[in-house]
Every structure is written in C-alpha cells, then in structure tokens.
Amino acid sequence: MSDENLTSGEGFDGTELTVVHVMRHGEVHNPDGVLYGRSPGFHLSELGREMADRVAAYLSGRDIRHVVASPLERAQETAAPIGASHGLPVATDERLIEAANVFQGKTFGVGDGALRKPANWKYLVNPFKPSWGEPYVEQVVRMTAALGAARDAARGHEAVCVSHQLPIWVTRCFAEHRRLWHDPRNRQCTLASLTSFTYQGDKIISVGYSEPAIDLVPARLRAGAKPTRGAFGA
Question: Which domain holds residue 103?
Fold first, then answer.
C-alpha cells in the first residue's frame, strides 16, 4: 500500500486527492533516559530542532494548507518551523497525543529497574492489548479521527500532523490491514519521519514513508536498534 509519489489534487477519475503527512517529533532532551510519555516539560534537544528545520525545508515546496500537532511541547516545537515556512498557525489536536503508559516517568529499557520490580509484572501480562497502557484500538480510533479532521481542513491539498511513534505506527498498521500488536524494535517510524496518508475523497488509498532527516538520527534510535534506557519514550 506504500507509495511516496502520490500528491494532492485530483485523481484520474476526478475525485480529489488529499495527503496528510503524519510526522514523528524530533529528538527530545532526556538526559535521564526516562519514558516521558505525556509528561510536560520535555522539549526538543538542539539536534531535535535541527531535525524539525530539516523537515520544514523538505516540505517547503509542498502544497501544505494545514499544520496541527499534539499538545505536548516536543510536538509543538517540531511543528513550528513547518507552520512558519508556509505562513500557517499551528493548531492543536489532543487526539494526536502520545499513548498513555503506566511506566511514564520511569526508566524502561533492557536491564533497568522497572522490569525487575515484581509490582510491575502485572502490567506485562498482555502484549496484545497492551496491558501496560492505552489499548492499540483506542489509539487508532482517536488518531483516525484526527487525521480525518486534518484531511477535511486541507481538502484537495496537503496537511501535516505532528504526533508520536506508537500512535503513528498502529494507525499505519490499521490502514495497511496489519495486526496492531508488534515488536517495538521493528516500528518503521524514525524520529522526524513522515508517514503520509493519501486520501481519495474520504478513503485512504496509499501510505508512504520518508525520512528527510535520517542522517541526523543516531544509529541507536533507528528502527531495529537494540533498546536502550528511555528508548520506549517517543
């Protein structure tokens, strides 16, 4: 279903095409390696700001008519240069927020304390829902609604939504008719990446993926890398 080359405008049958680019935010300043989740106060690092600027430049020639972001600081800061380059305000949509997680504020990487505490084991019993946080299905429902609102705001053109890794990935899985439960190491949703949904009318007809800032992303944070402290906070 992936196709990076479709653009907004009109399809072969005259039906309008709209592209909604869903961007994952840039790198976050997180020296303690915690799973920050929905916690306030986590801003982009200097590298993260460079990533945001890179994607803004990449999208500067696109027909962007609407920019919207999760309410969390890292998403708002990532969206800002995109909105500025197109002379657009950055709207906020709560439905684009990070997934809720019971391990928020803790370190949750391989060998870290959170997994060694028996009190936390009850949260790990069901990886299919998952038992440690917001159900995948609920994430898909709210994200699909947010993308639909962005599509409606940019009918026949393009929109950018800035969100977070897990909600973006499960929404893509749903659109591509794949199972929602997965190995987090295999998510194709690198920092500052774009997952682009092309709509024909109200129907998604393709999903594309691009990494305009991949040369800025540390190897340890790319898809397939070995998990490190704080690696699950996205």
Answer: 17-192
